[in-house]
């Protein structure tokens, strides 16, 4: 699914000229209150940061015509195609200037870092999910666990499949 050049130019212009209270800065107290181990945040955090309703946030996902485009959003729900999604937003996109036009193959390694394996507990913390969700994802074959570690390859493939 490509984004038209006109929509891309509009989004770039909007992102480069944000209103003062539309983007939290790295010095914002809310940013320092979030533990550095956290990689993804929930819809509720985005609502609190932006001061808007859920519908406004949901409409901005992947829509380059919206002033607050959210590109790096992932559905971590155990079942694909459910009516209820469990969305996680990449924290770096919210509080820094992440490249909204990069390919997933560029961004997902930034999200995961260089490690090859992750314990379930680490992913619970980083992705703000519970142990039941991780167990369901492993049991469904969405994630692969080897020697009590979730593999980097399965996590990367999962994120790419679940990009909204």
Number of domains: 1
**How would you describe the oligomerization state of the chains in this entry?**
single chain
Q: Helix share of residues?
A: 40-55%
What ranges have pLDDT less than 50 throughout 5 or more consecutive residues?
A: 1-5, 7-26
The helix-strand sequence is HHEHHEEHHEHHEEH
Gyration radius from CA atoms, angstroms: 16 Å
Largest sheet: 3 strands, antiparallel
**Beta-strand proportion:** 5-15%
Bulk shape: globular
Tell me how many strands there are.
6
* Average pLDDT reading: 83
Helix/strand class: mainly alpha
Strand order of the largest sheet: 1-3-2
CA distance, first residue to last residue: 11 Å
How many helices? The count is 9
Question: How would you describe the overall organization of this protein?
Answer:
With 164 residues, this protein is mainly alpha-helical. The chain has nine helices and six strands, in the order H-H-E-H-H-E-E-H-H-E-H-H-E-E-H. The protein has helices at residues 5-16, 29-33, 43-50, 54-59, 91-95, 104-112, 120-127, 131-139, 152-162; strands at residues 40-41, 73-75, 87-90, 117-118, 145-146, 149-151. The termini are close together.
List the helices and strands and how they pair.
Blueprint lengths: L4 H12 L12 H5 L6 E2 L1 H8 L3 H6 L13 E3 L11 E4 H5 L8 H9 L4 E2 L1 H8 L3 H9 L5 E2 L2 E3 H11 L2
